[in-house]
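Structure (tokenized):
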């Protein structure tokens, strides 16, 4: 994830566009991560299972999966589930790795593990590669 400086002046439309873009990326990352988890657990990710886990309606998942397919991150088969492409699986693993790093950092700072898991879920989508590398270096130095 690259860092783009935000023009935070009240009249700047860029800051809103950048915020919407970040939310859009976070949504994609949540879906590929969950699809990967469901495949690991049961061999496939069904629309119904995705909707249940995310607490959203079936049409919401169908729309998101269509987007994942357009972006080359997933495929689906009639009467089967949703599967990740190679690019989708790589993105899911990248998100999981960021999550693990953030949880480890938060726990190292004294945050209870359950809270660290919840906090990392939101943070994982917004941490830059530079900051993540610094977190990893800090954790490695503690070992």
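Design, position by position:
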């Amino acid at each position: 994830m690259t860092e783009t400086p935000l023009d935070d002046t009240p009249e700047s439309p860029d800051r809103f566009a950048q915020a919407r873009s970040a939310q859009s990326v976070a949504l994609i990352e949540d879906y590929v991560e969950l699809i990967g988890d469901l495949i690991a657990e049961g061999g496939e990710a069904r629309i119904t299972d995705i909707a249940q886990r995310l607490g959203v309606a079936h049409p919401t998942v169908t729309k998101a999966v269509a987007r994942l397919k357009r972006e080359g991150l997933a495929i689906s088969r009639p009467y089967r589930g949703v599967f990740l492409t190679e690019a989708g699986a790589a993105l899911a693993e990248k998100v999981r790795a960021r999550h693990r790093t953030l949880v480890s950092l938060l726990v190292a700072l004294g945050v209870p593990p359950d809270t660290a898991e919840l906090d990392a879920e939101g943070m994982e989508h917004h941490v830059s590669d530079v900051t993540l590398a610094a977190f990893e270096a800090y954790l490695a130095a503690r070992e």
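Reviewer-requested clarification: The domain at 90-142 is CATH 1.10.60.10 (Diphtheria Toxin Repressor; domain 2). The chain has two domains: 13-85, 90-142.
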